[in-house]
Specification:
With 560 residues, the protein is of the alpha+beta class. It has helices spanning 17-25, 48-53, 82-85, 116-120, 135-150, 179-190, 231-241, 289-298, 338-344, 382-387, 400-412, 456-476, 538-558, and strands spanning 2-10, 30-33, 67-71, 77-81, 195-196, 245-248, 252-259, 262-269, 275-285, 317-332, 353-355, 360-363, 366-369, 371-377, 414-424, 432-440, 446-451, 479-486, 494-497, 521-523. 49% of the residues are buried.
Length: 560
């Protein structure tokens, strides 16, 4: 039996949920196909072994994996199979996608992010372009995300503050740790402009959801209260409650069928392994950048022998991640005032401090695009913190009383401050996703093949930002300060592969995120992004998906 619906959405994360929410609320029938299972808030336990050590919410690599290709120093390609080397690019395979596991650090992109080529110029070896839309187009939707999805924070003046249509966030800051004021003071002494970090977390009960319980285990964990503004709690639950949206979990889509310039059906395997088909008026692809490109490439036909919407051979190209890295420094009790020691061990409260003083900066007479620095405590997971103490500085095993002393100091007499750096991963011809002709997943489909390359410029910018962050840690009184900036790709921050633009020869999607070559196919995850900005992507994904949802809604109303 063939299912029929108005809108078929493949994927259920931040790029999918706004479309499902908007169209179902307007009375149209929506079907969401999600490869992963459906979890409730009761399923999100703070179990470090299950979640972090055994990767509860990601597929087993023997069933679903990727082939990863990198370059050695001579430019030769090194091929590795994910299951053989333990390299995973999965981050949350479930209804709501990876938004379930995010930390919820939300920053808007800024006007110059949309005009990277115009403002900062070309970079040799990079495919830098301007976006086909400007900040002013997306600004109302950033605001909509604040109000409908839920973003908390506090606006302050700083050199790179972006224009806003509202003066303040709709929800106040979450509970702040006392160390936030220490960072404010340290930054003031250095002449920096510390700013409260906006968070996709509700500080109290609102929007039909409970407020944050401050469990101290947030990033990498599902939210047991619904306070985290992930796609399911914020939007999909309400879409389903409308009576117009159904979510088919454990449904693996393996092909989008097409005829001439239209998509005409989606084939998927249900939980029992049976092949099913669904037909719709509009198809929306939002399966995560790598997987969306993979599905299009696997959806070949007479009209699209290279993959759906790929007669220009642009699908999978210009894959980007978030460049940057992180750094740490340890606050030792004996080096801080006594009145601050007890408060340092306070658990659950958020640091919520960021710097954007170097979102753009001068270097060698050139205007250089910089980025964002977020400050936080090291992750609360106890096992890796303990394992770090098992060896000394000479890499000799520590045990007995010596180990006990180190553990006591780590957990009770000090605390590690961390910073994360976000800057642009420039798109290049050398970083892309294809499909592998040798390795298949458990359903017999060719897996995604990821070619990785980080432009040297990205690392240079990241190191510049890390140096500024290290100065803040020094001013705080931290010791053992270090940072790690590299071209290693973070699997949870991936975009591109179906960039939007006005030229069908150099882009997959038009400015409305509709495929140039397929009239009723939209792509609304991070795939559309030609450049990534110097912030985490999720807020922009949500905002753009709401924008595209309005475009689809207008089209549906015209064609009723």
């Amino acid at each position: 039996m063939i299912r029929r619906t108005d809108i078929c959405i493949i994927g259920s994360g931040a790029g999918a949920a706004p479309v499902a929410f908007t169209l179902s609320q307007a009375g149209f029938k929506v079907t969401v196909l999600e490869k992963g299972p459906l979890y409730s808030e009761n399923d999100f336990k703070k179990d470090e072994i299950a979640v972090s050590r055994r990767s509860l919410f990601t597929p087993k690599l023997k069933d679903e994996q990727h082939v990863i290709e990198t370059y050695d120093e001579e430019g030769n390609i090194i091929r590795e199979v994910g299951s053989e080397v333990g390299w995973s690019f999965w981050n949350g395979s479930m209804v709501g996608g990876s938004s379930n596991l995010m930390s919820g650090y939300f920053h808007r992109m800024k006007p110059d992010d949309f005009r990277l080529k115009t403002v900062f110029g070309e970079v040799e070896g990079a495919n830098v372009v301007d976006w086909p839309i400007g900040y002013e187009t997306l600004e109302p939707y950033y605001t909509k995300v604040e109000e409908v999805v839920g973003v908390s924070g506090k606006m302050v003046e700083h050199p790179f503050r972006e224009p806003r249509s509202t003066e303040e966030f709709p929800y106040p800051q979450t509970w702040e740790h006392p160390v936030a004021s220490w960072i404010d003071n340290a930054c003031a002494e250095l002449g920096y402009h510390a700013m409260p970090t906006p968070r996709a977390i509700l500080p109290y009960d609102a929007l039909g959801r409970r407020g944050c319980s401050y469990s101290n285990l947030c990033g990498s964990y599902g939210c047991a209260t619904g306070a985290k503004s992930h796609a399911k709690s914020a939007l999909l639950d309400k879409a389903v409650a409308s009576g117009n949206c159904e979510i088919l979990a454990d449904s693996y889509v393996y092909k989008i069928e097409s005829e001439k310039n239209s998509a005409v059906g989606v084939y998927y395997y249900d939980k029992a392994g049976e092949s099913r088909k669904i037909e719709a008026k509009i198809y929306v692809l939002a399966a995560q950048a790598i997987e969306s490109a993979r599905l299009l490439l696997n959806s070949k036909s007479v009209d699209f022998p290279n993959g759906l919407a790929n007669n220009s051979n642009q699908v999978g190209k210009n894959l980007i991640f978030s460049a940057g890295g992180s750094g740490t420094g340890r606050l030792n009790f004996e080096k801080i005032p006594k009145e601050h020691r007890e408060s340092l061990l306070l658990r659950g409260a958020f640091v919520n401090r960021s710097l954007q003083d170097w979102y753009a900066y001068e270097s060698g007479g050139q205007n250089v695009k910089g980025g964002t620095i977020d400050f936080l405590f090291e992750h609360a997971n106890a096992i890796p913190r303990a394992l770090d103490q098992v060896y000394d500085e000479n890499n000799d095993l520590v045990w007995g009383k010596a180990l006990s002393k180190k553990l006591r100091h780590t957990f009770m007499r000090s605390r590690v401050m961390t910073f994360e750096v976000f800057n642009d991963w420039l798109p290049t011809d050398r970083c892309f996703v294809g499909v592998d002709d040798r390795v298949k997943d458990k359903w017999g489909m060719p897996v995604g093949k990821i070619r990785l390359y980080g432009h040297p410029h990205d690392v240079e910018v990241g190191r510049h930002l890390a140096k500024q962050a290290e100065k803040v840690l020094e001013a705080l009184g931290c010791e053992e300060i270090s940072s790690n900036i590299s071209d290693a790709p973070p699997p949870n921050l991936v975009a591109g592969g179906c960039r939007f633009g006005t030229d069908p020869e150099s882009s997959v999607l038009d400015p409305n995120c509709r495929a140039h070559e397929v009239a009723n196919l939209y792509v609304t995850d991070a795939s559309f992004m030609p450049t990534g900005g110097s912030v985490p992507y999720t807020w922009t994904i949500y905002a753009n998906a709401f924008r595209v949802a309005d475009i689809i809604l207008k089209e549906m109303r015209i064609n009723v």
